[in-house]
Amino acid sequence: MLSATRILAIARKEFFHLRRDRLTGGMVAGIPIVMTLLFGYAINHDVRNLRAMVVDEANTSASRALVADAAASQVIRIVGRAGSPGALEEMIASAEISVGIHVPPDFEERLAHGTPPYIQVLADDSDPVVLNAMRGLNGLAVGPAARQPGAVEIRPLYNPERRTAVFIVPGLCGVILTLTMVLFTSIAVVRERERGNLELIITTPVRALELMTGKIIPYIFIGYIQITLILILGMWLFDVPVRGDLEDFYLGAGVFVISILSLGLLISTAAETQFQAFQMTFMSFLPQLLLSGFMFPFEGMPRAVQYLSEAFPLTHFLRIVRGVILRDASLPMLTADLWPLALFFLVVMSIAILRFRKRLD
Q: For residue 198, what pLDDT is reported?
């Protein structure tokens, strides 16, 4: 028969264990609080303030009023003017802007005769959210014929068929690596500690930096295997185009892999057990997944949350992988997203090494 006394004794023991396990106890309250704040405050489908530049070849009062009306919509934020439509395309490819507005030199003539399109909007449709937001610009007040179809020509640059796989699959390279690389490295080091192997290793002349560097090298190769598999499947099954140089893609991926592996090492210095390593990996993964721009529009987030997202490696790698694969951007064009990954690696790896020494002394 079931014994209520024995059941209560086991339950009491489990409560005591949870009380001693501060990490699990913190997550009991931490996960619902963090998730509620992320979904309630940071996630917003209403896109605002997309970075845009203008080429106004007409340069008339009407064309300037048009640009002002576009900015007043708050969907875009005019950050400057370019010299030519080609320059707009280059800046979109390098992720400097998401939208380009081209006002042709015969703008006034088209407006007077009611012959649209009056302007052309270049949209970075490697992110479908941008293209959807730009459709609202058809209502710009550009004259009495503004409401007629085709008043504003929206030109999608990279995914005119609007296929979801073209947007999702390249991003999966970063999402899958973020989860697996952090989990593999954090659990690998904790497993060594649980088995007592780590204490044997530190009795040798191996230094902390040498130990940690040796730990991550095999996982760099595993990371390359994973992104290659994702890329092959994307091209084969989903017809994802590869417009850029694969060498640039793999170099950028290498910087991302070492940065995310350093996060796994840092987690391993804080976790006592493999289960705790898994918990902390999950906690570090969710904010990156939700705030990096993979699932929800980055531009729709509050400015403070955007600043926070810039600290995540996944945010920068998504821009790199979509820039190279979909927009044919070269790696030098994406330097603004490469150096934060390198800085993240240096800072997090240094902290992990310091904590590792402290725990073993």
A: 67
Tell me the pLDDT tens digit for each residue of 259-305: 999 999 999 888 888 888 888 898 889 889 888 888 777 777 778 88
Cα–Cα dist 332/94, whole Å: 9
Question: Parallel, antiparallel, or unpaired for β 50-56 and 76-81?
Answer: parallel
Listed in sequence order, the residues at least 6 apart from 222 whose beta carbon sits closer than 8 Å to its beta carbon are: 180, 181, 184
Q: What is the DSSP string of 103-124?
A: E-TTHHHHHHHT-S--EEEEE-
Rounded CA gap, 12 and 82, in Å?
Answer: 69
**pLDDT tens digits for 170-196?**
888 999 999 999 988 888 878 777 776
Neighbour count for residue 66 (Cβ, 10 Å): 27
Domains of the chain listed by start with CATH number: 4-43+163-355 (no CATH), 50-146 (3.40.1710.10)
Q: How far apart are CA 288 and CA 179, in angstroms?
A: 10
Whole-model pTM? 0.81
For residue 336, which amino acid is it? A
Backbone phi, then psi, for 150, in 5-degree steps?
85, 10
Cα–Cα nearest to 56, from 35, 27, 39, 78: 78
